[in-house]
Amino acid sequence: MVLRANITQIDAGGILDIAMAGTSATLLARTWESAMLVNVDHDTLRPILHNPEAMATVERIEGWRAVRDTIIEIIINKSEMMKDLTDKAKDKDLSAKEKKQLTDQEKEYRSKRKLVHEKLITLATRIPAFMYLTDFRENTLQDVNTQIEPDLFQTVTDLTVKNFHLLMRLKVFNTEHLNQAVFAFRRYEDASLRYTGIESQEGQTHYGLHDTVEAI
């Protein structure tokens, strides 16, 4: 048996189509659960803690009541304690008690951060549901939820547009990864519709991402 290979010219869109062809709904869902989609570092959480409106916003997120109201403050305090011990270790060896304290602080810090991350991801996973329900595919998600269908956005996410944009300004969500996740969703949704013989929008030339537009 003789195997022959052909070299075929392909553009960037074709490469993306090939890459997305093996993406299942489960893998796409994981995109919206990625740790990179939200920021729960010290520099992001501190401004939230000191902003009453931001704190009121995160407390509206589904499941937030299951965690302590002071969880963000605890994370920040743990972070500062860890920094103090780490800085001290640079000058001299820590005592056995201090080493154990550092280990305990690190464990609790990671545990609390994971809880906050899970709650913020709960909000992020509402965004694909909103995109699925809206027909405005060439507009940026930012324009759709702000100017076109703000009531639908609030119904689906349980946050007002003002709440969501406050979280965006505080960099709770990673804009670059949010754009990538929206793009992946748009490609997958179109591929699924074409498979059933449905054209999502005839003549569509662009996808609206979160805050930018990408040519198809």
Topology (elements, then pairings):
Elements: H1 12-21, H2 25-31, H3 42-49, H4 52-58, H5 71-91, H6 96-124, H7 126-133, H8 141-148, H9 150-157, H10 161-169, H11 175-195, E1 206-208, E2 213-215
Antiparallel strand pairs: 1-2
Radius of gyration from the alpha-carbon trace, in angstroms: 22 Å
Number of strands: 2
Distance between the termini: 40 Å
Order of helices and strands: HHHHHHHHHHHEE
Give a structural overview:
The protein is elongated, with a radius of gyration of 22 Å. It is mainly α. The protein has eleven helices and two strands; from the N terminus they run H-H-H-H-H-H-H-H-H-H-H-E-E. It has a two-stranded antiparallel ribbon with strand order 1-2. Helix 7 packs antiparallel against helix 9 and helix 8 packs across helix 9. Strand 1 and strand 2 form a beta hairpin.
Summarize the structure in short.
The protein is an all-alpha fold and 216 residues long. The chain is 63% helix and 3% strand.
